């Protein structure tokens, strides 16, 4: 049984061979078998995905998929609210953003969908 290398871009284990190329079905990255992996062995690469499995990156635009109550306030972020230019962070809330009418806040990636 042969073991294929994980994707060097998103670390997905679901890579497959297509001729002389390796292909990642999750992020669409293609690389040849002779290429050196982009991430070194000691790097801790964290992939943040939205509610439907799309990989998120800094600067993406997302939409909220669930009404979110804001703690300590009577404000609510409604379903369908569009958030532009997100920034990914480490921690419980993996997205830092600014929402019109509310201000700066942190969101969890499980409550957003990439546009």
UniProtKB/TrEMBL annotation:
<protein>
    <submittedName>
        <fullName>PhnA protein</fullName>
    </submittedName>
</protein>
<dbReference type="Pfam" id="PF08274">
    <property type="entry name" value="Zn_Ribbon_YjdM"/>
</dbReference>
<dbReference type="InterPro" id="IPR013987">
    <property type="entry name" value="YjdM_N"/>
</dbReference>
<dbReference type="Pfam" id="PF03831">
    <property type="entry name" value="YjdM"/>
</dbReference>
<dbReference type="InterPro" id="IPR013988">
    <property type="entry name" value="YjdM_C"/>
</dbReference>
<comment type="similarity">
    <text>Belongs to the YjdM family.</text>
</comment>
<dbReference type="InterPro" id="IPR004624">
    <property type="entry name" value="YjdM"/>
</dbReference>
